[in-house]
Amino acid sequence: xxxxxxxxxxxxxxxxxxxxxxxxxxxxxxxxxxxxxxxxxxxxxxxxxxxxxxxxxxxxxxxxxxxxxxxxxxxxxxxxxxxxxxxxxxxxxxxxxxxxxxxxxxxxxxxxxxxxxxxxxxxxxxxxxxxxxxxxxxxxxxxxxxxxxxxxxxxxxxxxxxxxxxxxxxxxxxxxxxxxxxxxxxxxxxxxxxxxxxxxxxxxxxxxxxxxxxxxxxxxxxxxxxxxxxxxxxxxxxxxxxxxxxxxxxxxxxxxxxxxxxxxxxxxxxxxxxxxxxxxxxxxxxxxxxxxxxxxxxxxxxxxxxxxxxxxxxxxxxxxxxxxxxxxxxxx
Length: 332
Hints:
The chain is α+β, with helices and mostly antiparallel strands.
């Protein structure tokens, strides 16, 4: 999978589907090369396990624009408590100024952040509620899961049959259109996302429980409790802590130690590289139709397996918010 249910035994981080990241995407707006689209999806199998965004959590899209794998720009999305079937979102943009922000914890203060979207209604039905403020557009709500993959074949030793496990499933999507200048003056940036929740016994301190950059990194390369540790680790610290584990996994796929180390160095830190001046897809950002699984299957299998026989979905929208309408058969 991309990042769905990436805690041990196919469970959600913090045992809470509301903060379980499924996928992130970053691509140039096909209608305006001066703007970028950032997508953060959560809540696999929505709305089976959760029918709302978590009101005391923080959902963040993080941008590194100087190559140190630390966030220079963060877009923070906070949701109101769901009441009478309604929920609202506020989006703030904050720029790192002191060089100390590693992104992993948050004290809840936003005195130095700019509000770019305020009180945007969450969409729980088929029609997307889109909020516009100047150069920003925002959507949050129930959508078709855009990810495509033969999960059952993967779990049975790469015995792929071309059955797309995700074709009829839903997620909760967060879609943000931003002017490129909001990401920084250097068009070559790093993008990742994380979710934070109140710490146990310290509700004023938010701690990271899930994070994702490139697709399928945690699900494929980490095992057991390492998945939990990886989700709480900042990208800048991942190579030092996890390179040996990644090398071991790659050696298990048949690579020698030298090649495995080279690939591990490429995959860590877990940050999605994106040149917002280019319309190319993965490995430049990630578009909804990019077949990331075929690319990564070929990588980890040394070319022995090149496809899971599953292709992109047909329900993506051609314009904002790009994610397809939710599958009503899976809506309570």
